[in-house]
Amino acid sequence: MNPVSSVSSLNSVDAEACAALSAALSGEVVLPGDEAYESVRHVFSRKGEPAAVVRCRDTEDVRGAVLFAREQRLEVSVRSGKHSLAGFGTCRGGIVIDLSPMNGMELVDADRHRVRVAPGAVWSEVAEFLAGHGLAFSSGDTASVGVGGLLLGGGIGWMARADGLALDNMTGAEVVTADGRILWASAEEHSELFWALRGGGGNFGIVTSFEITARPLERVRYGKVVYPGAEAPAVLKGWARHMRQAPDELMSHVTLFPTRGGTPAPITVIFCYAGEGGAEAIDPLLALGTVESKNVDLVPAPKVLAPSGGLPPGWEPTVRSRFVPDCDDEFIDAALGGAGTFDTLFLEFRSLGGALNRVPADATAFAHRDCEVLMNTINMGTREANEAAAPALARFWESLAPHVRGAYSNFLSEAGEEDIAAAYPSATYARLQAVKQAYDPGNLFSRNPNVKPIAGS
Questions:
Q1: pLDDT band at 308 (very low <50, low <70, confident <90, very high)
Q2: Nearest-5° angle of CA 186, CA 189, CA 190?
Q3: Is the same domain home to 321 and 230?
Q4: In a domain? residue 356
Q5: pTM, full prediction
Q6: In degrees, to the nearest 5, what angle opens at C-alpha 153 toward C-alphas 148 and 155?
Q7: Which ranges of 96-225 would DSSP assign to H, the alpha helix?
Q8: Range of 42's domain?
């Protein structure tokens, strides 16, 4: 039987089967009514009512949870750091396979800087562990984000231009598949699965251990400069021109917070230089307009990871992303002009290029390798407010269609057919489908930017 063709929709599981699962685990099963349930049923921006949360401590726990979900025909959510913007790390009536207790790290090859990292670790923990060995890694940019979700989707962090995406530095992964097999995927073993894991998300199994390659680096030059909101067009255009020819060691973001009906909020340029020196590369970013404030410091590499603040009660932000092949003046005018009609829209522009763009488009399932910038929007507010704003937001993005393409699966609060098609170009999607058919033909792992098995197979 297709394991998800008859998914249970009840917020309960067979008590006898659940007791047997609990007895077999080194971890624990948390059920509705248990004292711990309230602390484990939600994720960062979405509420959940799972029938069970299985807090796994090792690979055998994960295998047991997967087989239990198949037998009970339960919808499966997989969680590492609770930061799924679309809420894939929880569900209603299904099972959450919670990897957060699996947070170990090990230096397995000091000469080649190879590190094994469990999926439930968060990046601040990884950064501190690596720093203890004089190493650093191009992860994301937020301290509390989990290893698993970020590595499978991309990882556009502060060293992406210097070292590539986080997933470009993955050399292997231990995976529990939908039928309970435990496999090692690498360039030499299950190579198509390894290709798909790097950008195809959690579609193909549950990764219980990643092997990554870090690099020697102890300190980076990190800072930010704030300019008046009224100067945003000139600042952003100057930033784009500079980043187009900047050295790979320089990574930069530009952020604009919502006006909330008042005067334009300041525009902030944030940057990180991952190498020796850096003044010549950074100085142009400090002279893009009228400086309101600035700071530049040489800091330990872990210090560039920002804490993630909590959301006000009831907020469920709408997040969307698209890649910008050419961040030219016409695009910038269109983006800023359209965004200016909203009172609650946060904008972010992330520089790309460098090592990230030198990887062939078909080398991994992350195919967007020839763009200059990633643009993200976050519409702040409650679900009701965002649903009301959805038509206007859709028109805004439609107005940018001539300038943008693709999508970054880690920065999507919805994953409809349009977004899936944008995240996975047709050739990439077809190859992912073949891998899905081989490793998860019943689509047990569907709560993700989903690649469906080949119909009729």
A1: confident
A2: 90
A3: yes
A4: yes
A5: 0.94
A6: 85
A7: 123-131, 147-153, 160-163, 191-197
A8: 15-98
